[in-house]
Design goal:
This protein has about 350 residues and is an alpha/beta fold. It folds into two domains: about 240 residues, QueA-like; about 80 residues, Thrombin, subunit H. It is about 20% helix and about 25% strand. The strands form three sheets. The protein has a nine-stranded mixed sheet. A hairpin with a 2-residue loop joins strand 8 and strand 9. Helix 8 packs across helix 9. The protein is globular and about 60 Å long. Keywords: Cytoplasm, Glycosyltransferase, Isomerase, Queuosine biosynthesis, S-adenosyl-L-methionine, Transferase.
Length: about 350
C-alpha cells in the first residue's frame, strides 16, 4: 500500500511532553464497530468483559542513549538490539567520523569498539572491560526518549521513572511499551475485581520502532528485528482464556506483535523465543488477539499502519480526526485508546 495513505495532519501541540498524573487519569477513546466513546483509563474495566485477559510486556527500558568521543569527534549512540553479552547494535550520530576498529569513549570509565557497519547504517559496539554492560549503561547512559519528545525538551530525572511501566522486570528495551504506562495498582485492582485477568510476556523493544518509513510503498519497508519470549506456561494460560470464551486484549502494540508472531494457524499461542520482525499492515489476518489498548501514533508510522490493519484505515482516519478535534494527547506520554474490532 502507498505510505501516504497513512498520513494525516497532527498539530505539534498534540504531542504530550509529560504523562498524565496520576497515570490512570489519562483519557481513553473506546472504539467499537458501533461507534466511539470518550472515557478515561480508569473506565477500562467497564469497557471489557469478565473473563477477558490483558497481555502486558514486562520489558524494562535501559539507559541506552550514550554520548562519547572518538578523538576530537563527538559520537552519539542509541543502542537498539543486543547481539551478545558485551555487543550491541547501535545507531550512530556523526557516523562519518567513525571507522571500523575505532574506540569510542563514553565517559565514566565506559568505552566500546565500533565494528561491522550494517546496511542500515548501524554499528556493532563491543563494550570493554569485565563489568556487566547493564552497570556500564547505568553509569554513562541516559533514558532514550523518542525523537519527537527529545527534540522538544531534554531528558531529565523524571523520565527515569516516567518512562518505565509498572510491569517492567526484564532489562533490555530501548523504548517503553507505552500503552502500559497508563496502568497503576489502583487500575489493576479494578480490573481484577471485574474478573479481568492479565498475563505478561517479554519483547525487548528496539530503537527501530522510532524510525520513519522512508519507502513510498509498505512492501518496501523493512522492520528491525526484536527479541521476544513467551514461555510454555504463559502460552498455556493464554490458550485456556480463549478456550473459555475470553478475549485476549493486547496492552500495547509490542504485546500484539509478539502474540501474533507466536500464533498458530488456528489462533492458539505457541511458546516463542527468538527474533521477530513482523510488520502488520491492512490485509493482515489477526489470529491471536481480540482487541488492543494503545496510544495515539504518529502519521505514516508503522504503528498507525498496525491499528489501521486491526480496525480498517477509514475507521482509524475518523478515529484520529475525532481525537485531534477532542484534544487527545498523542504519542508515548499521551492518552490511550481501546480498539475492539468486529
Amino acid at each position: 500500500m502507498r505510505v501516504d495513505l497513512f498520513d494525516f495532519d497532527l498539530p505539534a501541540d498534540r504531542i504530550a511532553l509529560r504523562p498524565a498524573s496520576p497515570r490512570d487519569s489519562a483519557r481513553m477513546l473506546v472504539v467499537r464497530p458501533d461507534g466511539l466513546a470518550d472515557r478515561t483509563m480508569l473506565d477500562l474495566a467497564d469497557a471489557l468483559r469478565p473473563g477477558d485477559c490483558l497481555v502486558f510486556n514486562d520489558t524494562r527500558v535501559i539507559p541506552a542513549q550514550l554520548e562519547g568521543r572518538r578523538g576530537d569527534a563527538k559520537i552519539g549512540a542509541t543502542l537498539h538490539k543486543r547481539e551478545g553479552p558485551r555487543d550491541w547494535r547501535a545507531f550512530i550520530r556523526n557516523a562519518k567520523r567513525l571507522r571500523d576498529g575505532d574506540s569510542v569513549d563514553f565517559g565514566a570509565g565506559v568505552s566500546a569498539i565500533a565494528s561491522d557497519r550494517g546496511e542500515d547504517g548501524s554499528w556493532r559496539l563491543s563494550f570493554d572491560g569485565d563489568e556487566p554492560v547493564e552497570l556500564l549503561l547505568e553509569r554513562a547512559g541516559r533514558m532514550p526518549l523518542p525523537p519527537y519528545l527529545a527534540g522538544k525538551r531534554p531528558t531529565d530525572a523524571r523520565d527515569a521513572e516516567d518512562y518505565q511501566t509498572m510491569f517492567a522486570r526484564k532489562a533490555g528495551a530501548v523504548a517503553a511499551p507505552t500503552a502500559s504506562l497508563h496502568f497503576t495498582p489502583r487500575l489493576m485492582e479494578r480490573l481484577a475485581a471485574a474478573g479481568i485477568g492479565h498475563e505478561t510476556l517479554t519483547l525487548h523493544v528496539g530503537a527501530g520502532t522510532f524510525l520513519p518509513v522512508k519507502a513510498d510503498d509498505t512492501d518496501d519497508h523493512r522492520m528491525h528485528a526484536e527479541w521476544g519470549r513467551i514461555d510454555a506456561a504463559t502460552a498455556e494460560r493464554l490458550n485456556a482464556v480463549k478456550a473459555r470464551g475470553g478475549r485476549l486484549i493486547a496492552a500495547g502494540t509490542t504485546s500484539l506483535r509478539l502474540l501474533e508472531s507466536a500464533a498458530r494457524a488456528d489462533g492458539t499461542i505457541a511458546p516463542f523465543e527468538g527474533d521477530t520482525a513482523i510488520f502488520i499492515t491492512p490485509g493482515y489476518r489477526f489470529r491471536a488477539i481480540d482487541g488492543l489498548v494503545t496510544n495515539f501514533h504518529l502519521p505514516k508510522s508503522t504503528l498507525f499502519m498496525l491499528v489501521s490493519a486491526l480496525m480498517g484505515l477509514e475507521t482509524m482516519q475518523a478515529v484520529y480526526a475525532h481525537a485531534i478535534a477532542a484534544q487527545y494527547r498523542f504519542y508515548s506520554y499521551g492518552d490511550g485508546s481501546l480498539l475492539l474490532p468486529a
